[in-house]
Amino acid sequence: MSNPQLETIFPCPFSKNYGIPKKQAWLLLKVFFLYRFILSSLFVILFYSRFSSNIIEARYEQLYLTTSKSYLVLAIVSGLCAFYPTIKYTFQAQMVIFTDIIAITLLMHACGGIESGIGILLAASIASGGLLVGGVCSMVFAALASVAVLSEQAYGLSINTVTFSSYPSAGMLGASFFIIAFLSVVLAKRSEQSDLLASQQQQTISTLEALNQYIIQHLQSGIIISNQEGQIYMTNEAALYLLEQSSPPVQLSDVSEQLSLLFSFWLNDHKQESLTLQRPNHAAIQLRFSLLPTEQETFYMIILEDSALHHQQLQQGVLASLGHLTASIAHEIRNPLSAISHAGQLLSENPLLSPEDLRLTQIIQNHTKRVNKIITDILQSSKRQPSNREKILLDKWLKDYLAMFMLEQGLTKRLFELVFLQKKLYVLIDPGHFKQIMDNLCVNALKYGCIEQGNIIVQVSCLQKSPCITLIDHAPVLKSEVIKHLFEPFFTTSSSGTGLGLYISRELAQLNQADLSYSFTGQQGCFVLRLSNGEHRKIEL
Question: Less packed terminus of the chain by CB within 10 Å, N or C?
Answer without folding.
Answer: N
